[in-house]
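Ticket #4471: structure output looks truncated?

Reporter: J.K.
Steps to reproduce: submitted the chain below (439 residues) through the standard prediction queue, then opened the result file.
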Amino acid sequence: MQLSSEIKGYPLRSTLTPDFDRLLPVTSVQLVVALAAIVLAFVPLVPPVEALEGGMTTRGIIEFGLILAALALLAIYLKLQGAFSFEVRTPGFLVISLFVVWGMLSCLWSLNPTLTIAKAAELWCLALAALMIVTIGRRSNFSEGRLETILAFSMIAVICGLIVSNLYYWGKPLPNTGDESLPLDLLGQDFSERPRLILAYQHALATADLLALPIICLFVSDRSKLTKAVLSAGLLALFWLADARGPAIALIAALAALSLLKLRRNSVRAIAVMLTTSFVLAGVLLFHERLPAAIRPFMTDDVYTLNSRTELWSHTVTEVLARPILGTGYYASRYVLIKDFSWAGHAHNSFLEIALTTGLIGLLILAGFVFFICTELFATRSPLLVGVTLYCLIQGMLNPQFFSPCLAMFVLTIALLDAGLRKSRASDLTVKTISNDVR
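Returned output as attached by the reporter:
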């Protein structure tokens, strides 16, 4: 009696990789246009309004309109590539969606329900746009570093456009807050002895994010060393004019981490060292009052109090304890902070902001999100994810980054989803190879 067996592999078909012979190509330029629309949405193109003003504002309409226009472009690109489909079951997207659902529910007790709903919807739209961009990249078989190049060039295009538009807004390409001849009241601030770069009507800290993130993307892009050097030098010069110390520390830490990652060839130990360093730096920012006495003479008064943030954080903790479970409603922190701190539209800390606005439940979702990012760092060793994560962790100690509809969160979402889908695709290819070998 002869025994024989045949093992046949199951056919694998991913919704992210349809038959490429039937697809129309989506060029890098087309993606840059869609991404530039989203990046531009984060820049105030009209003067700011009263911080406590509710309802729809001109800035809000422009912001949401640009995001929806980008989503429409991305939907067209997906349709050109075949079926209009993408993998919504990715863990990162699901965690963000879970937070958005909780944020939407918080409108029931929010101090500004309209603002809460609008901002929660905007955060989800940004996550959806990030998922569509990553899907297009996977379908187009982008080489390593190509998506990073597209991200960098979209932000650079917006920066160049804003410098030109400054001639219309301010009469000069590189205005600053130290120029008394400018109508600085349009920015909602007075003359400052600390001159900082102005782009349209954007705050200097947001400008610093807009300049720092393309530098990180360029560092891990597929461009030549000469191109990287020239573009990075120009961005660093503008970043210097923004004079933002928190983003500067975050950028230095991110670039140092990426350099170490290259030298150690993506080792797990190098990633562990970088994460530990970022948490130490974040701790220094929070507990700077306990630094050794020898260091204190080198700290100016505004650095010592982190521009009065320490007092704001103490007050925020008091407000959090007053509403520990539900919070004030997503994006409604300004209504309890601004009466005591006229300059504070938010808690100036990612974790305190989420705790204040969405309570313990929102904070737990954020903690799970950060934990998931850390696990993906070790699993994928994605350079873009490493750089953007470290930047957001450090900068997020001074200004809201996580679960906030802002540029840093958008780039972080793209990096997270791209790393996860790359890992999933590599796993599918491994399974397919084993199946073919067995067969």
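Triage note (M.O.): checked the attachment and the full token line is present. The longest helix spans residues 407-438.
Status: closed, working as intended.
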